[in-house]
Amino acid sequence: MKEAGDKTIVFTNFVDFDSSWGHRRDIAGYAAGLELFDRRLPELMELVGEDDILILDR
């Protein structure tokens, strides 16, 4: 996001949430991944400008 220019779409898929931990494969791993994401979310929010749109989906 730091390097994305204006009028740019940044799409990110956190694959491990589904392929490694999801579908009840590893509940503890899924929870740990969510906790890590939650801790790092403020860093992401600092990069979001007032004219930007951030969409998070589970």
TrEMBL record:
<keyword id="KW-0413">Isomerase</keyword>
<protein>
    <submittedName>
        <fullName>Phosphopentomutase</fullName>
        <ecNumber>5.4.2.7</ecNumber>
    </submittedName>
</protein>
<keyword id="KW-0479">Metal-binding</keyword>
<comment type="similarity">
    <text>Belongs to the phosphopentomutase family.</text>
</comment>
<dbReference type="InterPro" id="IPR017850">
    <property type="entry name" value="Alkaline_phosphatase_core_sf"/>
</dbReference>
<dbReference type="Pfam" id="PF01676">
    <property type="entry name" value="Metalloenzyme"/>
</dbReference>
<dbReference type="GO" id="GO:0005829">
    <property type="term" value="C:cytosol"/>
</dbReference>
<keyword id="KW-0464">Manganese</keyword>
<dbReference type="InterPro" id="IPR010045">
    <property type="entry name" value="DeoB"/>
</dbReference>
<feature type="domain" description="Metalloenzyme">
    <location>
        <begin position="3"/>
        <end position="56"/>
    </location>
</feature>
<dbReference type="GO" id="GO:0043094">
    <property type="term" value="P:metabolic compound salvage"/>
</dbReference>
<dbReference type="GO" id="GO:0000287">
    <property type="term" value="F:magnesium ion binding"/>
</dbReference>
<dbReference type="GO" id="GO:0008973">
    <property type="term" value="F:phosphopentomutase activity"/>
</dbReference>
<dbReference type="GO" id="GO:0009117">
    <property type="term" value="P:nucleotide metabolic process"/>
</dbReference>
<dbReference type="InterPro" id="IPR006124">
    <property type="entry name" value="Metalloenzyme"/>
</dbReference>
